Amino acid sequence: MRRVLVELLTDHGVDVSYAVHPVAGRMPGHMNVLLAEANVPYTQLKEMDEVNPEFPQADVALVVGANDVTNPAARRPGNAISGMPVLDVDKAKSVVVIKRSMGHGYAGIDNELYTNPRTGMFFTDAKRGLTELKAAVGEFVG
User: Fold this and answer.
1) 74-128, pLDDT tens digit by residue?
2) Which residues does UniProt call coiled coil (predicted)?
3) Burial track 99-124 (b if 16+ CB lie within 10 A, e otherwise)
């Protein structure tokens, strides 16, 4: 379903990229395998150090299921994830997070991204959320 949403967006002139944190998923490379299974063009996949400088120019960052790897708290000392590299999605003009709950990640701390005023939380599972988002975008660009 991700690919269908991307096709809809790119058909309307939207530049879309994918970013996967190096430790995302159940094992190294897990998310890359899932993207390949979904037929996501490898040319749209960017490494973290390549995509992070692009977030301040991004209109929207769509986050699906991530927690600690998107938490801005990592940039400050004194917490469980201090110094951990994160995807700088909070620097986009707006952020949409698809997640089942406000639950904590592995580190057990709140994700400050979720309470950022530029972040909208969409509480659902990934497949349903992406399906509904695709339908909503389709109606908008109609």
Assistant:
1) 999 999 999 999 999 999 999 999 999 988 888 999 999 999 999 999 999 988 9
2) none
3) beeeeebebebbbbbbeeeebebbee
